[in-house]
Amino acid sequence: MSIEAGSKLQGKVTGITHFGAFVELPGGSTGLVHISEVADNYVKDINEFLKVGDEVLVKVVNVESDGKIGLSIRKAQDRPERPERPERAPRPEGASRPAGRPSGGQRPSRPQGGGRGGARPNQPRPAVSFEDKMSRFLKDSEERISTLKRQTESKRGGRGARRG
């Protein structure tokens, strides 16, 4: 009997390891059911689900060129098909997401302008060059660093190094 991917067969568990179970198939060949293919839920200990000598229905997942046979107990079980979700209508070009629902699990972004001063709704912001942005960033950064240095130096006695 030839074993082909996709076929369902009755087999007998011949060995159990920490990573799966070996199942003897009709015709004497043996395949492996990986621990992830034993049940639909998480399997911590395969011995809770299978024992040597158990008769199991398996589905052939793959047959490799070197003769290894990959099996699945989980995929062999007939369960009702989940109803497919209806297709969503594509979002029109340029349409934004509904308010209060950020995309991709991200936090909503802050309003333009950093929240300082009054917001000017529906007014375009003046274009700022990269150089202007960079110089503003460097100025803010230097101010923060100097404040931090003053605070840490006062805690250390003003000399910069701790004396032991």
UniProtKB/TrEMBL annotation:
Gene Ontology biological-process entries: translation
Give the source's domain of life in one word: Bacteria
What's the short name of a Pfam family annotated to this entry?
S1
Instruction: Output compositional bias ranges, type Basic and acidic residues.
Output: 75-91, 130-156
Q: Where is this region: Disordered?
A: 72-164
Domain annotation S1 motif: ranges: 6-74
Q: Name one GO molecular function term.
A: structural constituent of ribosome
Low complexity compositional bias, start-end? 92-111
Under InterPro entries, the record lists: NA-bd_OB-fold (IPR012340), Ribos_protein_bS1-like (IPR050437), S1_domain (IPR003029)
Output the PANTHER family linked to this UniProt entry: 30S RIBOSOMAL PROTEIN S1 (PTHR10724)
Any idea what this protein is called?
A: RNA-binding protein S1
Species in which this protein is naturally found: Halalkalibacter suaedae
